[in-house]
Design goal:
Blueprint lengths: L1 E5 L9 E8 L11 E9 L6 E8 L2 E9 L3 E6 L5 E9 L9 E8 L4 E5 L4 H12 L4 E2 L7 E5 L12 E5 L7 H10 L5 E3 L6 E6 L9 E2 L4 E3 L6 E8 L4 E7 L4 E5 L16 H10 L9 E3 L4 E2 L6 E3 L5 E3 L5 E2 L6 E7 L2 E9 L12 H7 L4 E5 L2 H8 L9 H39 L2
Helix pairs in contact: 1-3
Length: about 425
């Protein structure tokens, strides 16, 4: 197989695009509280231009700024009422318009209520005080709380439906066996065992807080059998052991940490990520999970109750039996409906890979092909010669042209000779009529 590549197209102009938008550092804004929007701008390598940008939220212009290409602008905004917040960030349009606007939709939730069961330690209490002062959380009694921070799992069996729990080890190691008993009472077979007692670093962090590289000097071993009911491992250490896991409890999700949030066991309380981590533990399993983004062209997975999907242009399309909506080629916000009830709102944006306009080089193109050779053409005539390098049979256009000329000559001769005969016959008839008396 031979592939011909046409290189005669002029280099495209530098393309700039909205690379991403983050609200509140990745956590949803709280009702009636100010937050911030971080807008990242991308562009071609070496582009040093300064790009103006604007942020529209809840139908209004909420901020404007300028940032260099590959930079990020942070704009304070809000407050917003409880409900769903929708909008977009945009830059001035260029030749490639689809990536000049980035859509988002996310909930604005009230601050969660938090209660303590036991003593989580001074650093957790201080982080809670900071969050409470900023209106991010509210303290309450355990029976009324959305989230319970439980030392050694205290009160797990008393959680009411819908409550979430954050389980932290305590200062007394003798209570570890009590934690294992409490975990069995809520239907999970995971066990917490003494750790190896060596220093290790955080390898991966799926919370988005940024714990990679944090040091852990003491961590219990979270033994996870196949039937433990573990919904996911959020933070993993360099030795492959989980440090923060999510369990499926009878009332709601349970987050279990392998270390106390204390400098005696980890340096996390001394890092800037401490307060964001505590906030994620409280709300990360709630509204933040609803901040869904989708690339244009990717299928949108629908709930069973969905009957229609409304596209950004207002077109309403029915849902088929696969419960996958595949007509997501246009960026914007898509509304998932069950009759007239809104089930979900999903932001769809142009894929970032479509914004990178650098042409592929010959070596990379050759690597993409299983076999064959790659040749280049830089002009139109060269392209034609390389593409039409082989033909089957002889060309017939000379014969068709000759036959056409012969037919035209024959038609002209026939027309001219037939006209002389008709004129001769007409003149003889006129003479005969004139000779009659």
């Amino acid at each position: 197989m031979s592939v011909v590549v046409y290189r005669g197209v002029p280099e495209p102009e530098a393309n700039r695009y909205v690379r991403g938008v983050t609200v509140g550092g990745g956590l949803p804004p709280r009702a009636n509280r100010r937050t911030e929007v971080a807008v990242s701008i991308g562009g071609a390598a070496g582009d040093t231009a300064t790009v103006p940008l604007r942020v529209f939220l809840a139908g209004q212009l909420r901020g404007a700024a300028s940032t260099p290409v590959e930079g990020t602008a942070i704009l304070p905004t809000g407050p917003f009422p409880q409900g769903r917040l929708e909008g977009y960030a945009e830059i001035d349009p260029d030749e490639l318009r689809a990536d000049d606007r980035f859509y988002l939709t996310l909930p604005v939730a009230p601050p969660p209520t938090v209660a303590l069961a036991g003593d989580p330690g001074p650093f957790v209490r201080e982080a809670l005080a900071v969050l409470e002062e900023g209106g991010r959380v509210r303290r309450s009694l355990p029976v009324e709380a959305d989230v319970v921070i439980a030392e050694w799992g205290a009160g797990l069996a008393a959680l009411r439906p819908g409550q979430r729990a954050v389980v932290l080890p305590g200062a007394d190691p003798a209570l570890r066996t009590a934690l294992n008993r409490r975990l069995r009472e809520v239907g999970t077979t995971i066990t917490v065992e003494p750790g190896p007692g060596r220093e290790v670093a955080v390898d991966s962090d799926r919370t988005g807080v940024g714990l990679e590289g944090a040091r852990v000097t003491r961590a219990r071993t979270l033994a996870v059998p196949p039937d433990a009911g573990v919904a996911g491992s959020w933070v993993t250490l360099e030795d492959g052991t989980p440090w923060l896991v999510e369990l499926t409890g009878p009332a709601g999700p349970i987050l279990l940490l392998a270390s106390r949030l204390d400098p005696a066991e980890t340096d996390v309380p001394l890092l800037a990520q401490m307060v964001p981590l505590v906030e994620w533990l409280l709300v990360g399993q709630g509204p933040v999970a609803e901040f869904r983004r989708l690339e244009a062209g990717a299928p949108l997975l629908l709930p069973v109750a969905a009957t229609d999907v409304e596209a950004p242009d207002g077109t309403r399309l029915p849902v088929d039996g696969t419960h996958e909506f595949r007509f997501t080629g246009e960026p914007g916000v898509y509304t998932v409906l069950a009759g007239d009830e809104v089930l979900d709102r999903v932001a769809v944006n142009a894929p970032l890979r479509e914004s990178l306009l650098a042409p592929i080089d010959e070596a990379s193109l050759q690597a993409q092909l299983a076999s064959g050779t790659v040749t280049e053409a830089t002009t139109g005539p060269e392209w034609q010669r390389r593409v039409y390098s082989r033909r089957q049979g002889r060309e017939v256009w000379p014969f068709l042209l000759g036959a056409t000329l012969i037919l035209l000559l024959a038609e002209s001769w026939a027309a001219s000779s037939g006209g002389v005969d008709r004129r001769s016959n007409s003149n003889r008839a006129d003479v005969r009529h004139a000779a009659l008396p």
